[in-house]
Amino acid sequence: MRSPRRAHDAAAPDEVESAAPVMTAHRAGLVGCRSCGRAWPEGTKSCARCGAALRTPDRKGLQAVWAWMAAGIIFYIPANLLPMLRTESFAGLAGSAEATILGGVVQLIQHGSWGVAAIVFAASVVVPLGKFIAIAWLARVAGRPATHEAAHTRLRVYEVVEFIGRWSMIDVFVVAILSALVQLGFVATIHPGPAAVCFALSVAFTMLSAQSFDPRLIWRGLPLRDRRDRTTTG
Amino acid sequence: MLHEGHYDLTTGAGLLACPRCDALHVEEDLRAGETARCVRCRTVLARPHEGAFTQIVALSFTQVVLMVAAVFFPFLEISRMGIGNATSLFGVALAFSHGWLLPLTAAVVAFIVGLPVLRALLLIYVLAPMARGGRPAPRAASAFRMSEMLRPWSMAEIFVIGTAIALVKLGGLATVRMGPAFWAFCALILVGVASRVFTCSATIWDALEDGGARTDGREVVPAAPPQPADGPRG
User: Fold this and answer.
1) How high is the mean pLDDT of chain A?
2) Model's pTM, two decimal places?
């Protein structure tokens, strides 16, 4: 059996890339705690150091990923169709407008604020759609054999999704600030629309979906200890 | 008790599994300023800092104070055609308090005020006793795990960027003045970033373990399969 290797800054990355299969907790019959990193014998229910539940990385966990993502997609649809903001100016005489997410972006472009339009478009359209696609792809390919480069790409995609997910909430905050601030009675008032709730829920569900994805699945073909694994570990 | 560098592949003692890729590493104490990265996926496993606990406690305390200021001082003020409106942070959160948008109010309050404060208090609770060299407080491990779990849901910095976008959207329509709460919130973000730089969860878990929170001696682990006599221990 190979002995585990030491972690140190000294280990050059290229040396790592070319390395033979790394000893993993799963191959050693252990299960690693995702919260604090402690390794425990397989079958242990919870980590005695931090109290987190221990889970072996297997495709069962992907069900939660798909479920949360479905919820996220379901709420993303009304978030785009319903109005995000309702604006009334001059007591509705000068017109009251309801703006959806895309409508708001179009308004910003008409005002010439290209930069802000780009940020809002990215945060509320590109990022959510990109997240759905990225998580679906990760969950599809999880556990399938991958080369080292492919695994690194998948991990990078996962890290980007995990980092960027919460930033979609920006749109909800903008709506909150605008409708709290623009209460100018006769002149102009802004009210939040139902899309704000749908959008917030969609973002929250997508965050949960990304959090339930276990990145350890990226690194190995499942079922985890098949013949191939045995031959490589010797 | 184990000597540094000793490990036991049957129980996992002295080993760490990378939370991202499950690669096993032999646990070693790092000096301040050193960085341990996973040999396979290069995820940072530990990066201790000199005097980090005291600094984190101080920064968390600062965060609480700034948040109190941010909540009670005026946040933004707007005026157009002689009609003005001012709002506080709570005003922003209460923007959704009409009809069935109400639950979103609770979520927004939690995201921008509640969870940042809760996380700061939890970190103080966990680290303050250990910064003074004492034993960890009761249930410190659960408190720290909760604080780590809530990290993605505390969205103060996203709220600040949301404010910036709202200001740009309002730019042409009305005059906006930033109140003290706005600046307190900006300072809060900087303090939060500084606190994040000093936080190394592996170091905190080790300190909790060494302090004997609930974990000294791995005998507390229910030995899953019947095992032969344990490997050599130091």
Assistant:
1) 78
2) 0.82
